[in-house]
Write a structure and sequence with these properties.
single chain, alpha+beta, 2 helices, 33% strand
Length: 99
């Protein structure tokens, strides 16, 4: 699981969360993303795959896209040995500054 955040020019806060904590009923490999100004009120999409390799490739793609569009890591539960090419982005959560 990983949650990203970013703010826009009006200082609105946006979230993007990737999760694979629940299995999909019809396929073995899947993950869900949710996004919006509030994770409980945002949108959600589930990706399904035929193999774990396809799932991992899509996860890396989605993470790279979020980072490249200005999202920062709020928190992550990835292990240190996962996603070597993206470790610079997943290294440490960033803390929002007040004001």
């Amino acid at each position: 699981m990983i949650t990203f955040y970013k703010t826009d020019a009006a200082r609105r806060l946006y979230y993007y969360c990737i999760s694979d904590r629940q299995r999909h009923l019809f396929v073995r490999h899947s993950f869900t993303v949710s996004w919006g100004v509030a994770l409980t009120q945002g949108r959600e999409k589930t990706f399904t795959f035929d193999s774990e390799k396809e799932k991992q490739q899509k996860l890396e793609q989605v993470i790279a896209e979020r980072v490249s569009t200005g999202y920062k890591v709020l928190y992550s539960y990835f292990r240190r040995n996962e996603f070597h090419r993206l470790q610079h982005a997943l290294r440490q959560p960033r803390i929002l500054e007040a004001g």
